[in-house]
Amino acid sequence: MGKMRARSTAKNGHDYDVIVIGTGMGGSAAGGISALNGLKTLILEKNPRPGGACSYYKKEGFHVDTGTHLFIRGNKGPFGVCTRRLGLGEPLQFLHTDPITHLRGFNLDLAFPASWLRAPLAGLQFMYQADIPLREYPSIIRMGIDIMTMKPAQIDELNTVSIEQFIQRYTNNPQVMTLIGYLMGLYFILPSWEASAGESVWNIQHMVRDLNLGYPKGGCVVIPETFLKGARNHGAELRLNAGVKRILVENGRAQGVELENGQKITARAVISTSSAKDTVLKLTGAEFFPEAFLKRIRSTKPSLTATQAKIGVKKKLVKGGSLVGAWPIKMGRNVDHDQLKANYKVLETGRIGEIVPVYVPVPSNYDPDLAPEGQQILTVVAVAPTLETTFVDPEELWMERMMDAIHHLVPGLKENTIFCDTWSVTTLAAWIGKDSGSAITTGQATDQVGLLRLPHETPVTGLFMAGDCAGPARGVGTELACQSGMDCADLVARNLRLGILN
């Protein structure tokens, strides 16, 4: 896509053409593409390091990512698009490992291989361990074939269909409903009866066809850092330790921002990559928006989130690129889908359920340089509600349950732990600057995907939203945010070029 030159700051007296709030995947991509498009761009980050949920810290020789991620497409997805557009080529190096993941829990104990030639055998082992009756095998195979052969229009028709409803087109077997539904919904941190089947099928297709599930060499932060390097190459300015207190609005249009230190900076457009609720209700103010828009913002549902643990380990205890499962490991031979539903319902009331779903990417299995030689870093998450829910069980208890689960799921972990840093939902929310602490602030539920997602433009002229909160982009978390950031930056440049924001 060519540059959309729209620079005219000197004429209208603003300090910048566009201010981007945040340096996560969405903000760094939006800032880079804004600068590429010829806009005088300022990118603001409240923390001392960029990256948001993809930032990091160092501890005892370990590189510790603040978030918990795997990346399903690498340079074949929006990350590669962004770096190529910025004139950087493909500097990001995504590493791979075998096995891809280890499934442990729901009666499973199975390593899933990186080779798709070995995948059918692993699939049969999966169905055997899950005690799925032979009569269900044809339906499951047909479902897999349908998922991989669907055309884009067919996938779009599934946007408003839940994963649970999609699986029910093939089978009502409770084991299938529980296990396949859980795995298909894992992308979105939503239960299968809420998550969009269209979004899930789209991501499965791209993961399988691209065969590029991996982790960036150097840790997650190299992705936003690379985008920010491209942004600076095109003239953008980056300020760290620059938290935004409020978005300035006059006469129905955004005029810039006021920083927490009191400094006011003007711009023709502002792109916020916080949540939609924080952008509208906290940073801007409800008084500037029509009631119909406020109603939509208030009803926007985030994904669930998680408590986290960053565990440095003396030796390699997990072989795969990740560990996916739940505790207790054994649940009886007939897995009860209603039991899983009941567990989520309890969770949504702020109480801890009997089942603890756990997800554990192992970055050092991809990039050994992220840990001292022979050692391992585990990034553990256990599902939890967002801060929009009142925690009846205190957050400390949620973290205790997470640690109980991971110690059962990884034998030898307790005696081989070098350090263990736990993150509550409140801690994570404070770092990423999103009040709910949700993993995906506009959850990819059946009524919030595709064209049903919040738009980039808001009723306040010159105020835009990007990242995981707005725009019709598809993808898993970080890729969704990156694509949204690029799309929004192009929209802002287009509007400025056409004179809509002058």
Describe the protein:
The chain is an alpha/beta fold and 502 residues long. The chain has a domain of 216 residues: FAD/NAD(P)-binding domain (3-Layer(bba) Sandwich). 36% of the residues lie in helices and 20% in strands. The strands form four sheets. Strands 1, 2, 9, 10, 11, 12 and 18 form a seven-stranded mixed β-sheet that branches. The protein has a seven-stranded mixed β-sheet with strand order 7-6-14-15-16-13-17, with helices on both faces. Strands 3-4 form a two-stranded antiparallel ribbon. α2 runs parallel beside α10 and α2 packs parallel to α18. It is globular and about 70 Å long.
Question: Which helices and strands, and how do they pair?
Answer:
Layout: H1 9-12, E1 16-21, H2 25-36, E2 41-44, E3 56-59, E4 62-65, H3 78-85, E5 94-95, E6 101-105, E7 108-112, H4 119-129, H5 137-149, H6 152-157, H7 163-168, H8 174-185, H9 197-210, E8 215-216, H10 222-233, E9 237-239, E10 244-250, E11 253-259, E12 264-272, H11 276-284, H12 291-299, E13 305-313, E14 322-327, H13 337-347, E15 356-361, H14 363-366, E16 376-384, H15 395-409, H16 413-416, E17 417-423, H17 425-432, E18 463-465, H18 477-497
